[in-house]
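Extended Data, panel c. Modelled sequence:
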Amino acid sequence: MHTRYHGIENIVGNVLMLRAEGVGNGDLAEVSYGDERSLAQVIQLDGDQVFLQVFSGSRGIPTDASVRFLGHGLQVPFSDDLLGRIFDGSGVPRDGRPELDAEAVRVAGPSVNPAQRIIPRKMVRTGIPMIDVFNTLVQSQKLPIFSVAGEPYNPLLARIALQAEVDVIILGGMGLKYDDYLYFRDTLEEAGSLSRSVMYVHTAADPTVECLFVPDLCLAVAEQFALQNKEVLVLLTDMTNYADAMKEIAITMEKIPSNRGYPGDLYSQLAARYEKAVDFDSAGSITVLAVTSMPGDDVTHPVPDNTGYITEGQFYLRNGRIEPFGSLSRLKQFVNGSTREDHRKIMDRMIQLYANSRSTEEKRAMGFRMTDWDHKLVTFGQLFEKRLMSLDVTLHLEDALDTCWNILAESFEADECGMPSELIEKFWPKK
């Protein structure tokens, strides 16, 4: 039986302060007043002073409320019955079905011991040419999608959830508009992919503290599935909302702010989540793909800036498509040499030619005289954008590589494309 404490000394926002002993940081507590019960979590300790963040808000809680510490941190029930379920940021079902009766596992535990990790060796096929061909996603990789408000990053994540060749999808939403939550739910359900998915969704109307739990819940469940030898893809949106929730709570706690008001441990908090990506030596893997919106399209904003130091590249989503310039998968060389023999060569050459076509478009816009070669580059660039860059395009990797050859053949002669002769002989489209 855990000791009950009475006498809350201070209430600021949704944070309570009282004095207690034998309490651990991150422990859960039950706050009781009258017939009401609220769950809270220890977010700071200062001697015997304990600061509690109340999940449902502190409205109506009197200073003589009873507080009982549960002796453990946040836990999440885990079993295969999680698949097809939707929960909120505190793990309560959103789908109208009963709570899961299963063994609880620890949330926000330490990262996997490096001795249990292996070098990434297998790609995650997404059916999106700008990822599969040019910046291959690799199992156990952690990659952000840098974007701005108004870009279709949530539809992009939904497409990846439908098309990715993995065993389990874990989708975490933070600060989502209710329409976005319904979009994810309905899209996965209509396509029959909800049966291999688990969703933890915090909407903008939910308590702020629940936003902080979403990545940890997703990653704790992902780790358990990976230990069952499953390949797991964790999709998170939006990590800037996660950081903003951290900032809001830090301000409530009167912590000394760092850059633009974010807490000084922003980097460590982000890294603790991203570093959960892993390829186990004798089990499955966890791959993390997370949206990071950039206020004002500012990549020096603290959230994308810190994220860039943690992750292994990034995708830039601009003008409704994944940009080839700036986007980078630092682990792609581990896998794209073993996909098809022409993959690396045609990937490099297509990007070179597309860069040249962009320069030629600028030249044309300024009224310079165009050569025959310039006209060919313009044709190439238009075909490249239409057949490969558009987010409406879905192609298997091999089909996407064949499309690259078709674009070259429609734009240039074989001896103009700059590809090795042995690859031209094997893959150049036959007329």
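The mean pLDDT is 91. This feature is highlighted in the accompanying rendering.
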